[in-house]
Amino acid sequence: MTRLKAGGPAIAKQGILVAFIVFMIVFSLMSDRFLSADNMMSVFRQSAIIGVMALGVTIVVIGGNLDLSVGSMLSFATVLVVDLHDKIGPELAIPVMVLATLCLGAVNGFLIGVLRLNSLIVTLGMLSVIQGLVLIYSGGQNVDIADQRGTWFAIFGRGAVFGIATPIIIFGALALLFHVIMSMTAFGRRVYAVGGNPTASVFSGIPRSQVVFTTYLISALCVAIAAIILGSRVMGSQNTVGQGYELQVLAAVILGGTSLLGGAGSILKTVLGVLMLAFIQNGLILMGQPYYTQWLVTWVVIIVAVWLDVAAKRGRLFSPIA
Amino acid sequence: MSRLNDISVLRWLMRNPIWGFVLLIFVFFSLSADNFFDYRNFQNILVQTSTIGIIALGMTLVMINGNIDLSVGATLALAAAFAVDVQSWAAFATWGNWQILPAVCIALLVGILMGAINGFIVWKTGVDAFIVTLGAMLGIRGLVFVYTGESSFFATNFAYSDFSALSLGPLPVLAVIFLLCVMVVHWLLSRTVHGRNTYAVGGNREAAVNAGIRVGPHMILNFMIIGFLAALSGVLLSTQMGAATPNLGRDYELWVITAVVLGGTKLTGGKGDIIGTFGGVLAIGIMRNGMNLMQVPAFYVLVIIGAILIAVLFLDKRFNTSNDGGLRL
Known about the structure:
The complex is a heterodimer.
Chain A: H1 10-13, H2 15-30, H3 37-62, H4 70-88, H5 90-114, H6 119-138, E1 143-144, H7 155-158, E2 160-161, E3 164-165, H8 166-184, H9 186-196, H10 198-203, H11 208-234, E4 236-237, H12 245-255, H13 267-286, H14 293-314
Antiparallel strand pairs in A: 1-4, 2-3
Chain B: H1 3-15, H2 17-32, H3 39-64, H4 72-86, H5 100-125, H6 129-148, E1 153-154, H7 158-162, E2 167-168, E3 171-172, H8 173-191, H9 193-203, H10 205-210, H11 215-241, E4 243-244, H12 252-262, H13 274-293, H14 298-320
Antiparallel strand pairs in B: 1-4, 2-3
């Protein structure tokens, strides 16, 4: 694809990568422990939940839509899987929860893909609806698992395979899987096409409704997997555990360079965005800064990263708007 | 038969369906909830909705202009923290009740400044307002924590917390301020050059530029107005509590956007008005209040308001496509 003014140095197009490397160098100079294997592993593990959700949201956003309901959907799925764990056992609780979460995704997909309603408002409404459902289901009580040591459910959040924590493996495997799907399959190409130019995609015979519907199913599936990790790690859940996650996830996706207009973005860069936010948080804490400093840094980083991206595309730094 | 009148009322309701809905739930709760149809309760509803309502007025301007502001909840918290803290600065120790004045002024200025920063970034960088204000939502919340050091501030001057209990004639002073804001912003949007240009820029930016309208200054002004209103809302909220907590106003942006969209303002810009937004705010306020009186758990209110939001969007799509050549929502 050639743009009218494809000017700007090539490095500006890799803004996120450059920023990532700069941050890594600064943090490793400022703190000895930052680059240690232990610290790296713990950052990877902590970022897995937001990361898995961000993979699904990336696909939705590439398809030209938004998903603000992932936060309360995470509360829903976590409460459900933790609550059902003691009632019907983990081997049934997991599939029931995944199915229920997929149903919520299907509602999103139907309203946005089939009825073509505005995705921001629909998922904003769903955010509220799902949060209400969680509270009704749990009656306002927090839930937890009674036998925390004896259950094999612990493997997803607390276990490790070959010395690598399971959440990292799940996040890594899903990232690879979705990267392959988005860059090598017909479905992936269709998502890009639908997000890039919906009208053209319909005229080229792409089933737009079906593609958008599927992106929301994928997003819900990612939330369900994130919920398994979270529920297994905490062995319990608050009703509002996912509150505010939607915007953090979106921040990571945007930082990864995915355009909110749709049609552009990549799974691997989203992983970079997720890791960058996690490393900023971790690095600042290791430097002895209070935890809320990360929000100030994130503010600047998000705007500068997207600004450079936009500037590289239009070939000039400042917007020409009068 | 006043058929003509019937039609014009019907047409007005078709254009402002939210007021039909407000009427409907008003009648419903009057009949089914004890204590709903009561002057004191109406005062309550106005005071309860004033916090979200005042911000929603600003959000209407910003959204008609084709932008959005997700940082209002954080701005509210920052302004509330300043309003409560500055009163107790040593410099104003001998001012008596006048120490409230510089505190409120500084809080409002901080709100305007935050809005100006957002507007300036949107204008100069050309980054989407959604992204800019999403960043600001995190960043300004960070400023709140830096400023307060994670602790709550309490107003030491009791005149400050007594303010919200005052009445101006038949109405509580908070309701009066809210209604005043509604009228001023309505006037601004419907009777001034800035209001007209706000519609023009949001409706078709290219055409607005070609018509010689300077897009940037109008965007900045609207962001400053919403910053001011969010700060005002924060000040009023802190007078109600006599305190400011760092987590004040979380998720308010979502409620505000819900109210504005219920009122018929389009996210894509160029469409909407204050009368609709006022209806949207009242709809949420009446629903919350009425269901509370009927002892429905607050959880159900979340489900119902979310469902109504989606239903409104659906109905709007079904019925509004014909008369304006395709809805762009």
